[in-house]
Amino acid sequence: MMLRNAKLLSLSAKFQPSSTEPPHNSRRTNITVGTFSEPDCKLSRRNLSKSSLLLLLSTQTTLTPLLDFSKAQADDTTISNPNPTNCGNRVPTKKAFIDVSIDGEPIGRIIIGLYGDDVPAGTARFTSIVSGKAGISYRRKEFVKIMPGYVQHGGIRSYGVDAERATAAVGTLQNLIEEWERGRRGEICNENKAGSVGIVVRDPSIPPPKTKLVARNGKLAMEEEVVAVGPNGTEFVITAVDSPELEDSVLVIGKVLEGMGVVEKIREVKTVRDNTSSPYFRVAKVIGDKRAVVAERGFNRPYSKVVVTNCGLIESPTL
């Protein structure tokens, strides 16, 4: 009898909770026993704002070293460029001119020096159009945008034969993009200083093409959706002040040698007000309203007709 009791005692002792670890029942009891009043479960705006501020400060403190490290890496990359491009060494190899009128009244001539040795494809394309050898010309074509820092010519945008000739002109758009990418890598100079002349090779305002799934001949295929028509390599800009924002879209091919006063007269023309800061316009752009796209094309357009009346190359032994 004593042995049975001892055995039961030993078995019951085996299932007794230890002094260092509370039983599972006691854990649940501790959680359920705690009293929570209804006001304790509510967060006031003051407490929420304090918590958000603390979270923001802690995140900023955590990310600051990473941002500093990334900035240091970028600085190291910039400094380690073994072949920095010197834009002051560029020498024009050809001369071109464009005569401009505002509402039919001539305002003067702009003489442009072209960098044929640095950007041969861009220079060849511009000279073939300005001289008329490509079968098309900038004559009777308008300046379509007047910005605070530059003026932009619309190029050849006609349909039919003119559009085909613009596409087939010397120096394809792909050649221009390749030279522009060389400028992005620092192999050639592509700084848009005051008085620079450049061809528009891409439109930064146009979003990248979207990939969509379509059915072709009973099969599913992926293709890119064309959002808008991009430049065709005939539009050009003339800067009045330093415009580094153009380096993402323009290939510099030359500079103004004479006629900056004509550029200033073009800048004085009244234009359609830029309304991109309007909240209604922003919402329309976000939801993809086509009316916003059409309205955006009209921003900064001159009310007067600013037209190239004549253009061509200047044969000169000295530049």
From TrEMBL:
Provenance organism: Camelina sativa (False flax)
Gene3D superfamilies membership: Cyclophilin-like
Occurrences of domain PPIase cyclophilin-type (ranges): 97-313
Pfam families referenced in this protein's UniProt entry, alphabetically: Pro_isomerase (PF00160)
Keyword Isomerase tagged: yes
Lineage of producing organism: Eukaryota, Viridiplantae, Streptophyta, Embryophyta, Tracheophyta
Gene: LOC104713040
Alphabetized GO MF terms: isomerase activity
PROSITE patterns to which the protein is assigned, alphabetical: CSA_PPIASE_2
Name of the protein: Peptidyl-prolyl cis-trans isomerase CYP26-2, chloroplastic
